[in-house]
Amino acid sequence: MRIALLAAGVFGVAFVVHWSWWRVQIPSRQSAVLLCILFATLCGWMVTSAIVPDSFLAPRTIWELIHVSIFHVALGLAYVVAYSAIEHRSPSMTALTFVADSGDDGRLITEVRGIIEADSPVEIRLTAMLREGMIVEEGGNFCLTAKGRAWAIVLSRWRQLLGLPPGG
């Protein structure tokens, strides 16, 4: 139980830092900043544990440290993946909110379709990949950067390892 509480506490601190930061200003590279927060929190806990080894927050054995670290990394990576899925509103939520904001008058079907097309999840992802430097626009085409190519290779190899067909 002690290990579970330590692990939940370390992740809880990371979550509070993340939540607080986002309340002040949402960073442009959200996933990268979130990963930094998660790993900095884990490193901060380890350093604090080394400085004050007799603290109730410090691991008693190397195995407690390993267990807490594995839990934190696994939960943190799962959170980043889940966060990237909820980072932007779904088309259904966009349409629902848009219609709700109109009150009892409702919205024209063309307006609702227009707002959904303007808030396309594909466009949002393309914009994010441009911002993150994974793709560039050249002569009306999207081209991979070195960073994008590296990620494409990693993801393709991962799909092969899992026995999945090529593609997205």
What count of structural domains?
Answer: 3
Q: Count the strands? A: 2
The gross shape turns out to be extended
Total helical elements: 7
Quaternary organisation: single chain
Q: Could you tell me the radius of gyration in angstroms?
A: 21 Å
- Could you list the spans in which at least 5 consecutive residues all have pLDDT below 50? none
- Report how far the terminal alpha carbons are from each other: 40 Å
- Estimated share of beta-strand residues: under 5%
Helix percent reads over 70%
Outline the biggest β-sheet.
2 strands, antiparallel
Q: What do the pLDDT scores average to?
A: 85
Note the main attributes of this structure:
168 residues; mainly alpha; 7 helices; 2 strands; single chain; two-stranded antiparallel ribbon; 3 domains
Summarize the topology.
Elements: H1 2-24, H2 30-51, H3 62-86, H4 91-101, H5 109-118, H6 121-131, E1 135-138, E2 141-144, H7 146-161
Antiparallel strand pairs: 1-2
Helix pairs in contact: 1-2, 1-3, 2-3, 4-5
Description of the structure:
This protein is mostly helical and 168 residues long. The protein has three domains: 2-86, no CATH class; 89-119, no CATH class; 121-168, no CATH class. It has helices at 2-24, 30-51, 62-86, 91-101, 109-118, 121-131, 146-161, and strands at residues 135-138, 141-144. A two-stranded antiparallel sheet has the order 1-2. α1 packs parallel to α3 (62-86) and α4 (91-101) packs across α5.
Describe this structure in a few short sentences.
With 168 residues, the chain is mainly alpha-helical. Helix content is 70%, strand content 5%. The radius of gyration is 21 Å and the shape is extended.
